[in-house]
Amino acid sequence: MLINNLQFLTGTDPVVIARQLIGVELVTTLGGVETAVRITETEAYWAPDDRASHAFGNKRTKRTEVFFHQPGTAYVYLCYGIHEMFNVVTGPAGTAHAILIRAGEPSRGLEHIKKRRNIETLSPQLSSGPGVLTKALGIDRKLNGHDLLLPNGVVRLEVTGPEVPPSQLIATPRIGIGYAGEPWTSKAWRFYRKDSRFVSRLNAFKER
Fold this sequence. Notes:
By secondary structure, the chain is an alpha+beta fold. The chain has helices spanning about 15-20, 110-115, 130-135; strands at about 25-30, 35-45, 75-80, 85-90, 100-110, 155-160, 170, 190-195. Strands 1, 2, 3, 4, 5, 6, 7 and 8 form an eight-stranded antiparallel sheet that branches.
């Protein structure tokens, strides 16, 4: 059945929400061009305790303030001075939970996605990995703080298919957070769709 109106985003457990976002479409309409991916990979970040979160310890800065906004807010930041990274704030408001969208399979505007990525074929390299996903969809920091639940928003989430069953989801530890230390590096808070080619690091970790 469809998850009506993305109501699951108002939940209080970002790990549960990270699972539920698998299969949801992430859509952009920029300059009259519509492109989208169906989300295949996510990571959950649980503040204020999670040392891998930018909002660890309820740290509030100009950059992290968006974390504390309403569920369904976009958090876009620059990583290593190169890659724009897209996150979904899950709240509730005042609680800095968020989900990093790591990969997706193109579902709309494939030719425009290929042009943005300078890739001629339908391949995982188009939109697998958080840095290239944003390039594929034209997402940058100008969209930071945008409401993803606006029906006609320039960047938005849309439920256009059935919920992905738990049997089709794989859980592993998150990627690239060695600095956070245990127990955070071992928590299986990264999820991807089983058998999908559009995953950033398919064999990075043993499945859990």
